[in-house]
């Protein structure tokens, strides 16, 4: 019999494990994959997430493996600036930086700190039932009873689907390729993330470490001509973009549809709570999905400092988190649509250039501020 079970060893489940460990609570994480080997891609940990990793004593480890990013620029396809957000001032104020890092490295740091004895791999949850406690059945035929359960099992969460019988997936009708490669970027791109907006397509890249560069490329689904090579879609972009795409090996590219989760009425039930993408998956346009999963874990930890009744904690947790998360999901969806316009781009870029950087910073600060 477990006191606490976490389903899913993604960034959300692993961060929660680290938080529960800080509280000296007994827990087991169940992960369907045979190893902690997330999709081969990079990820940006924004200042909100890095403040939490600082409290967990992991900030320096993550900074050392990743790459500090002081600004984010949106440009047109030829690197003509549309909008810039330089976060140096915010970094000083919050004593943390944005860090771009390989997902596998981040998950390794989080798992090592928990201790692998608390993570059961090859445990894919097949069913969950509430009797006096929760009965968890796994595809490998193992069965476990647990008093408290956290569903940290991602956007297609079985915990959510079986307990709450809800979860409508929204499809943004955009295809997203992500790639990793060894590449010498010119120095001016070393500590800044770039996103280039074209017509119905965009391309972003960031340096992850001494050698590694992570990129992503999106096109509107069904609207574009069918090219056989991804690079051909970006024929009208700066040569650097074409160079990065052409230099990436096919096996280092992954493709996904861009989806999110329509807001669900409640994230918790008796002794059970959803966190991260299972509760509130967002499109990636603000680079905040995982950061919000990390914030979820942090808030649960803060609430446990004053109350050991999990049901009270879960109720309070949802009250604290819902507004910020809904704001991010909705804003990210809108940004995703605007960034992929096929017509009127000149006007869009003109209007966006009128927005002062101070306004972008205000938005950034609203997001990186922790609720407690
Ligand atoms: C293209 C793209 C770019 C992104 N970039 C960023 C970014 O820069 N910054 C950012 O903060 N976020 C980003 N995100 C979002 C981020 O990837 C997610 O929000 C984050 O991974 C959610 O973490 P999670 O732990 O909640 O869920 P997941 O990462 O989905 O983890 C869920 C875990 O549960 C496991 N699992 C699933 N079902 C079961 C089961 N039945 N039994 C046991 N285990 C199970 C899975 O194997 C997985 O390990 C991006 C997303 C996309 C698509």
Automatic annotation (TrEMBL):
A Pfam family of this chain: FAD_binding_3
GO MF, one annotated term: monooxygenase activity
Lineage: superkingdom: Bacteria
The entry's keywords: Monooxygenase, Oxidoreductase
Keyword RNA-binding: no
Domain FAD-binding: 4-304
Full protein name: FAD-dependent monooxygenase
Organism: Chryseobacterium ginsengisoli
